[in-house]
Amino acid sequence: MTLAAAIFPLLTVVAVLTAIHRPLGDYMARTFTAPKDLRVERGLYQVLGVDPASHQSWRSYLSGVLAFSAVGVFSVYLLQRTQAFLPYSLGLPAVPEGLAFNTAVSFVTNTNWQSYSPEVTLGYAVQAAGLGVQNFVSAAVGLAVAIAFVRGFVARRSGTLGNFWVDLTRALLRVLLPGAVLAALVLLAGGVIQNLNGFTSVTTLTGAAQTLPGGPVASQEAIKVLGTNGGGFFNANSAHPFENPSPWTSVLQVILMLAIPFSLPRTFGTMVGQRRQGFAILAAMGVIFLLSLTAVTLAELGGSGTAPQAAGAVMEGKEQRFGIVGSTLYATATTLTSTGAVNSMHDSYTALGGMLPMINMMLGEVAPGGVGSGLYGMLILAVVTVFISGLLVGRTPEYLGKKIGAREIKLASLYILTMPTLVLSGTALSFAVPALRADIDGTSILNAGLHGLSEVLYAFTSAANNNGSAFAGLTANTPWLNTALGVAMLLGRFLPMVFVLALAGAFAAQDGAPATAGTLPTDRVQSVTLLVGVTVVVTALTFFPVLALGPLAEGLL
Amino acid sequence: MSTLTGTPTDSSDSTASDSGHPRTVAAVLITAIAVAEPFLGGPQASGGSEVPASFTWLIALWLWLTVLFANLAESVAEGRGKAQASSLRQARTGTTARVLRGYAADTDPGAHSAAVTEVPSSDLTLGDVVVIEANGLIPGDGEIISGIASVDESAITGESAPVVRESGGDRSAVTGGTRVLSDRIVVRITSQPGDTFVDRMIRLVEGAERQKTPNEVALNILLATLSIVFTVVVLTINPIASSSNVTVSVPVLVALLVCLIPTTIGALLSAIGIAGMDRLVQRNVLAMSGRAVEAAGDVTTLLLDKTGTITYGNRRASEFITVGCSDRRELIAAAAQSSLSDPTPEGTSIVDLAVTEGFVRDEIDGEVIPFSAQTKMSGVDFVNGSSVRKGAGSAVREWVTASSGVVTAELGEAVDRISQLGGTPLVVAVRDTSGKARVLGVVHLKDVVKEGLPERFAELRTMGIRTVMITGDNPLTAKAIAEEAGLDDFLAEATPEDKMRLIRKEQEGGALVAMTGDGTNDAPALALADVGVAMNTGTSAAKEAGNMVDLDSDPTKLIEIVRIGKQLLITRGALTTFSIANDVAKYFAIIPAMFIGTFPGLAALNVMQLHSPSSAILSAIIFNALIIVALIPLSLKGVTYRAASASSTLSRNLLIYGLGGIIAPFIGIKAIDLVLTLIPGF
Fold first, then answer.
1. Contact between A413 and B222 using a beta-carbon 8 Å cutoff
2. The domain at B96-139+141-190 falls in which architecture?
3. In this structure, what DSSP letter does residue B604 have?
């Protein structure tokens, strides 16, 4: 493979995102600030009993988020448990309790972790009415919270963050639905299947019998990537030819994953009236993305060992049609957003190469992160960065005119504390409690020792960050992992949202301080560098020991 | 003056809490393990590596040293304060107050016939009226209600020249512990016993009254978060390591935890705060709270009184302007002659200017006519019959016309022009021996802006601080002076209400306002401003309202105060950054050392090539302890602060304390490790 061919997919992604992030970002800013409602929206508000003109405090905004999500978890759980009675269920039985809980939580939290093989567990009814719906609304909830957070910077002493139900509706009807329809059409054109055929038995050329699954794949695939969900129609996810037939559909999926998250900084900049601020956030995300992509690609290209050398490259777990760069690009995009879809098996990467998708998630999925969650995650890091740099220039730190005092830094700190605590304690418990240890060693782990640790660590990192990708070696459909990962997903999604909305409320209650010559600018190369630095150092300090015990120890042997 | 023996200042609040601090707990724990080890068969191997017998003892020793050094930082800072406090206490020696019984303000304001009882100054309460005569110590803080006296305030200001204090007006406040040198005053006590100015000052410099400032609270939250993260990290190491059947020993884990949690900065934070207060006290400024000092660093708008702050307060001659066909030399001579025996600053400044333009002082042969409010002129009637006069335009005009002289329109123009420039015109005229008078010209008197101010204001501007001049002058004059001094804005013909309105307006725009004031009518504005610096010469109302008092009564010191506030914030931020950046190197020392016995490949992470796992861990612990000592001087002195834009300050400090904080421990730990290799077993 020539260098040009290797770089071409990346160049395509960069070119398309450069072209669309401004119009898409501005479109989203308009969507969430426009005073007018569509007729269908007005109808919905009447049914729901919502006054679209009313503004909510952070507490009632949060109540909306939590109530809506609780209903989501409950209904997806119920659908799975009653699958046997539902139409179009391909004759599949009810999903067991533990797995149903895990799956319900997984899709409502935008994680789309799959402890099961979809094609043999879930019928079309649950896929469409449960998971399909959640693919849309979980992304819409993330988007709404991010927009509410941005409103906290815009508000002056109002203390209100907009209306959750309006934001949710608009995110669905004006952003995700049209986007998904468009994406599905393009994917269809690219050869992704879309039918309700169930299983088809065919006889192959060699005469063997084979059962081919069908299904409404293209429609689910579109929102899977656009909404940074990642839950595949098939167990092999985007490595499956029916989901992702060709190198260019793979590139298209990467673009779709990154489209909304990379456009949101523009939305942020436009809404706060300082587009350079949005660009600074975008730049920080872009730098981290490129650094990570370079690292994982080099690790894979330089992979040593007898088997790779014989094969010419580290191709285990990678699809021949995507190649190394097509795989690492997809892996980087899927773990730096909260998608978790895979077109190659991260478990089979070289030890150091496999560490990078893990590190990507440990960064808190902020470059560019999930739909909405990436923006608010990065902005929280920006708040911490501004706090530290404010102390270094001798002023009470302020970001976009909002002072960062004790309450603000407390909420930002809690946000940052949540994910590492979940990851480390979840992993530690899995090995520290003898009964759980026996279960993990006996059932879950494919490879014992260092690589087994990496598999468990990856699972908890993926769950707590609502990513959903897995180190393939792990069997997660066990009582302990279904429960623990479910809890990690729930807390990893909603605790940060609590802190983000509370912080937005604190900012919204403040007046804005004017920028003077003494105000530290936050839209320069300097501040972007610092933001990247803080993001990396915070992650490194937190996860260095555990990485040393897993992938580092394995890779440096 | 009340004695404070009943309320000994107690600084234990800020230090004694160390017994519960993680580093102390760690030291106790490891000592216990070290004691127990010999009975359990020597030190436990950690992470697959054997450790020398003395390992646990050495770790325990250095943990105790860490505790010691951390306490040292605070006690050094407090020690400095105590030295100042003891000199203040001398001023507080108990004295006897002569309290008036039944003081009648209307009939006998001077209290010459009122009954006097003698009570110890410690028994004085709010509202008591005392009388103090020459050579008496003023027994408590108060306000003069009758009389005038010269007072020696050297006990609190260190300034030996006596100052005048009098009833009414803006110089009526007296401070307990100062001495009346002459005359007799009646004073109403304005402070509760034990809460006088000197008492508060003592408590402040001793650090007993130090409350955490908002930024400090926020920083502590961030540091606590880091501590929690690192605790979780360390607690989960053994469970996670058990997946590879590795166990790390408790001393090693504790060593890692103590190295990681921000103990360094934690130990230095209060020292930094105390030292900041101390720097203000050294400059004779008393801050009533640490919050005020910090707010000073945040100030975005400075309100500066024109007189005394921006100008010298006296008008000075700046130019001689001839009118008509008069001779310039004659004008200079006449102006100088008429001012030779005028002792006012205006008069001497005219002579000084004339001398620089070639005038030679000479004996005056004639009668000096002094300035009077009626004539509004001064001058000389010479023996030969001629006279010179200088004075206000209207008065001199009348004098000239009365002596059959002619006043041209040109004079009017010159006078108007000077007025427009904000100056004061003095017209000079002469009457010759024939009795005919004529106007020679005009002397331009103007407010002279203090030297170096435009540069200082430009400096403030780069720091992002707006300067606004407050003056009672008309807008024209104010504008001229503001432009000359390089101020950003001015408030002319300012009344106290105008000042309040300006402060409110600035604050509504999100600005933090600092101002100085001394009069009672300044008090509301001082209270409203975020930083209100009252002059020590001012009224007690002003001193109560402000949150700082300048003992030197120098309004320009406001700029100094802002610098100190900024320096305090930067020192705190710089040391925090340095301390967190240190963790990177400590990780590279300890993590490979922890597991290298089991995973030899981790030697690649041992970038410092430390000698052995034991020496690596011990080096990190020793570095962690020594760096506290090394940073004590910096935390007391404060980091260097240069007026510059926020961006360049950030770049500079990031380079020094951020990058420096990453690199320094790599060098330090390596150096310590080289020394440790000399110990057998390491």
1. yes
2. Distorted Sandwich (2.70)
3. G
